[in-house]
Amino acid sequence: MHWELVMREPLAIQIHLATVVPAFFLGTWLIFFSAKGSRFHRALGTLYLTLMTVTAIAAVFIRSLRPGQLSWIHVFVPITLFGVASAIWRVRRHDIKGHRAAMLGVYFGGLIIAGALTFYPGRLMYRLFFG
After folding, report:
1. What 3-state class would DSSP assign to 113?
2. Do 76 and 110 contact (CB within 8 A), yes or no?
3. What is d(CA 6, CA 101) in angstroms, rounded to the nearest whole number?
C-alpha cells in the first residue's frame, strides 16, 4: 500500500479516511455480530453514528472530482445524515424495525456503495490499494 499518498491529500480527505475506516469495521460488527440492545451495542452504536456524521461532514469539503464544486457523489452526504438522524429518532421511540432499516441504509448506502465508488480507477483508494 502507498500510505504516503494519504499524507499528501487535503485535510478533509484525511479526516474522512480516519473516520470512515473505523466506522466500516464498527458498522460491520454492530449489524452482523453484536448482541442487539446490549449496553455495549448502544455505546458502540453511538460511536459509529458519530463517526458516520463526521465522515459525511468531511465529505462536503472533498472536491476532487469537480475541483471547487460538489459532485454527484455528494448525494451520499444528505442520505447518510438523514439515515443517522432517522436511526436515532427511531430507536428513541422504540421503533426497532425502523432503527434497523435506518442503520442498514447508512451502512449499505453510506459505507458500501459510496465506499465502492472510491475504488474507481484514478481515485485515491484505487491508487492506495492498486498503485
Report:
1. helix
2. yes
3. 33
* Element (DSSP H or E) covering residue 81: helix 76-92
* Cα–Cα distance, 111 to 16 (Å, whole number): 12
Tell how far CA 103 is from the center of its chain.
11
pTM of the model: 0.92
Residue 87's nearest CA partner among 30, 35, 33, 40 is 30
CB-CB contact of 42 with 59 (8 Å): no
Whether residue 16 contacts residue 59, with contact meaning beta carbons closer than 8 Å, is answered with yes
Interval 37-71: pLDDT, tens: 999 999 999 999 999 999 999 999 999 888 889 99
Which grid coordinates are listed for 14? 484525511
Beta carbons of 110 and 55 less than 8 angstroms apart:
yes
What's the number of CA atoms in the CB half-sphere (13 Å) around residue 67? 1
